[in-house]
Amino acid sequence: MTSIAPKRASESATEMVQVVLPNDANPLGYILGGTVMHLIDIAGAIASHRHTRTLLVTAAVDGLQFLHPIKVGDLIILKARVTCVFKTSLEVQVDVFSEETLTGRRQLTSRAYLTFVATDREGRRVPVPPLLVETEEERRICQEAHARREERLKRKADAGQPVVGSQ
Ligand SMILES: CC(C)(COP(=O)(O)OP(=O)(O)OC[C@H]1O[C@@H](n2cnc3c(N)ncnc32)[C@H](O)[C@@H]1OP(=O)(O)O)[C@@H](O)C(=O)NCCC(=O)NCCS
Q1: What angle do CA 110, 43, 134 make, to 5 degrees?
Q2: Which of 38, 46, 47, 157 has the fewest CB atoms within 10 Å, i.e. is most exposed?
Q3: Are 148 and 91 in contact (CB under 8 A)?
Q4: What separation in Å is there between the alpha carbon of 114 and the centre of ligand 1?
């Protein structure tokens, strides 16, 4: 069996920057939550593609909070980074920031954890390259990702259970 060369998280780390335009906003002039979710998915997918160089599907997005609004005219910045790699799946962290164009003031507005599964063109799962974990910080991040994965697979199993009282 051929082994796949491991990669560092820094090799796939991705930053996306976009200005918030009126078309992206609600009547208060804040970016739509759905638009932020779309950009999170894209940023996470790009980092994952750069790591795996395979086709991917989004398997899960963990609970998402919107801590501060991002206003029309602000920049939205998304930083995506692979935190941990499993067998055919991997976890990516996406941090979202707002930046005021006139002052440069930055705020963290959301943090999302996404799981992607690598597939071939027929939809069969394929192994992903290992992640080179070189620092204590990277080791801690990967350990935390393992714990989140356990929780998420438990939630998935629960979601598959029939709802009591449903017809
Ligand atoms: C995600 C999907 C491929 C998982 O299929 P499955 O048959 O349940 O998964 P498998 O048992 O083959 O597991 C494959 C890997 O995915 C992981 N996985 C599956 N569902 C998961 C979930 N909800 N959260 C986290 N990881 C998950 C498994 O743990 C396994 O990881 P590993 O190989 O690294 O150990 C399948 O449910 C699917 O195709 N969903 C739709 C995806 C989609 O349309 N996304 C939006 C557009 S891209």
Answers
A1: 90
A2: 157
A3: yes
A4: 11
* Cβ-contact 68, 107 below 8 angstroms: yes
Task: Confirm if 81 and 93 have CB atoms less than 8 A apart.
Answer: yes
- Give residue-wise pLDDT tens across range 124-158: 999 999 999 999 999 999 999 999 999 999 999 99
∠ CA 131-133-134, rounded to 5°? 145
How far apart (Å, rounded) are the C-alpha atoms in residues 21 and 107?
A: 18
What's the whole-model pTM score?
A: 0.94
Asked if residues 84 and 145 have their Cβ atoms less than 8 Å apart, the reply is: yes
Q: Decide if 67 contacts 98 (C-beta within 8 A).
A: no
The model's pLDDT over 26-45, given as tens digits with 9 standing for 90+, comes to 999 999 999 999 999 999 99
Ligand 1 site residues (CB inside 6 A) read: 57-60, 86-89, 115, 117, 125, 152-153, 156
Asked if 79 contacts 39 with a C-beta cutoff of 8 angstroms, the reply is no
